[in-house]
Amino acid sequence: MVCYDPTLNKNAFRNRQQAGKLGAQSSQQSQKQSVKAQHEVKIGLAISSGGARGLAHLGVIEILEKNKIPIAAVAGSSMGAYVGALWCAGYNAQQLIKLAEEIHSPRQFRKLSDLALPPSKGIFWGLKARNHLRKSIGDIHFSELKRSLIVIAADLDTHRRVIGHKGRVIDAVHASCALPGLIVPVHYQGHRCIDGGVIEPIPICSLRKHVDLDYVIAVSTIPSGREIEACSAIKKPPSKKSLLRRALAFGIKPFNLLAPGNIIDTFNKSLKASQIRMADDAYAYADLVIKPVSCQGNWYDYHNYQHFIEIGRQAAEKALPKIFELLQSANKNQANLPHDPPQKPLVGKRLSR
């Protein structure tokens, strides 16, 4: 994975970020007033994969909307693509949160499950989830969206990125959300596609390459190695499940593919190991990184949506002063953007695109 935009150089970006810092800090209110007097700044939002943890993106979007932060374009992988599609189609933060409430129960979530028999290519087809998105946004095309959207999928055969930015949005999102092993690969634009989080879990580079922007804000639910270690050191509270429910869970564990140590859990943890490295390298190309990372819950814990949304709000609130700095410094930095080519690829030559 390489950022091909010739303006993308890690050292240049760090210098640009340092040059853009304001010496004296004013209150957020005065910052907002100053921002209004400036020209329209093009800010892109790159939002990560993450399953249920990606519901934290809703909390971030809510804070951005409340503070009238102008977002011109969005790029998303997997859950980030799903959320991005809804937002770019016109759903506001409160409407997005309402949608999350509708599918939080295991019963509702099971309604979106469509078993693939025989399960030789995946356990589910993913068509019911696709149709659920279709009920929300219809057959809207990328060209009809309220802001630009880039959707990332991975070509299973060429091991390269597939960029969704034309045609029907639901087709691109379906491909981007096809978690390998769980969802049957999706044929999209002549490619056999799987989850975009496999190849670009936080699509900062794709956003910069395909959209002309002043700044990119990344929102990532992917924890770093240190954050995982910190979470491991925290003692987990005793289980609130009854003895009967714990006994039942133990009894069906050999047949529960999501259970700790079983096939889907093992695959997901293996995928996370590679995502941590890719995401860590990609952050250098963002002007600001918001990380609503939680030690609580798993990628499939959609019932825990309130917690994930709240940590998204908290992370975005914490980042607001830096966002206002970016907006204020836009005019000063626009004439002196770096134009040096990237010095080294993010994750090596194998993922060259």
Structure description:
The protein is an alpha/beta fold and 353 residues long. 43% of the residues lie in helices and 12% in strands. It has 13 helices and ten strands. It has helices spanning 10-19, 28-36, 56-66, 79-88, 93-102, 106-111, 127-137, 169-176, 204-210, 225-233, 243-252, 263-282, 305-334; strands spanning 43-47, 73-77, 122-124, 148-155, 161-164, 181-183, 186-188, 191-195, 215-219, 288-290. α2 crosses α13 (305-334), α3 (56-66) runs antiparallel to α5 and α4 runs antiparallel to α8 (169-176). The longest helix has 30 residues, at 305-334. The model is unreliable at 4-17, 19-28, 32-38 and 337-353 (pLDDT under 50).
Radius of gyration: 20 Å
Any idea what the shape is? globular
Strand portion, in percent? 5-15%
What kind of sheet is the major sheet?
A: 8 strands, mixed
Please state the structural category: alpha/beta
Output the number of helix runs. 13
| Low-confidence runs of at least 5 consecutive residues | 4-17, 19-28, 32-38, 337-353
Helix content: 40-55%
Order of helices and strands: HHEHEHHHEHEEHEEEHEHHHEH
What is the distance, rounded to the nearest whole angstrom, between the alpha carbons of the first and last residues?
5 Å
Give the overall average pLDDT: 82
Number of strands: 10
